[in-house]
Please model this.
Amino acid sequence: MAVEMEEKPVIKLAAICGSLRKASYNRGLLRAAMKMCRDSVIEGIEMEDIDISELPMMNVDLESNGTFPLVVEEFRHKIRGCDAVFFASPEYNYSLTPLLKNAIDWASRPPNAWADKPAAIVSVEGSGKSGQYHLRQIGVFLDIHFINKPELFLNAFEPPKKFDDNGDLIDEETRKRLQDVLLALRAFTLRLMKGKSY
Ligand SMILES: Cc1cc2nc3c(=O)[nH]c(=O)nc-3n(C[C@H](O)[C@H](O)[C@H](O)COP(=O)(O)O)c2cc1C
Model:
């Protein structure tokens, strides 16, 4: 009996960083993840870095009959067009960074661009965990389907150093953990994509 080999689709993964800091550790994680996908350490993922730094502060006065400022339209278009989302963000005062919350809010305006997107979140911060859990909670309302595990929280201040002065990841154990998150997100995304074809 012939065995049909199933061809898996390439996943379009939108990468979003919640920090603007030049040597951001979270951006360092994101860069490391993008490199793994680019170098085919992880196959089947095309990752695009989505810039959220130019979005205006959320203000519904900027909307007009369901249209948004161009930069917001472009951002929403990218979120709608991706298969899954990868967030790397620190915690600020037990919650999301304002940068990330602003982007979430813009893409949430009707029609909600986040709806039904598989997602993962990784974080470098102090010892807090609430920021990541707040994002997961927002995901409940917006129908973002976060993978539960593996979780990835890193303490920015605890030795040994995991990032160099440019914010590049230098720790191999962390690289492996990051890889496991991407693999779990890829598997979950493929499951959801397959489910949709029935
Ligand atoms: C305004 C502000 C608030 C912060 N609040 C928290 C916090 O509540 N919990 C925590 O663990 N770290 C907190 N931090 C520390 C950051 O999460 C940490 O410096 C992180 O590395 C910053 O991410 P980045 O390197 O990607 O910029 C805070 C930092 C700032 C600037």
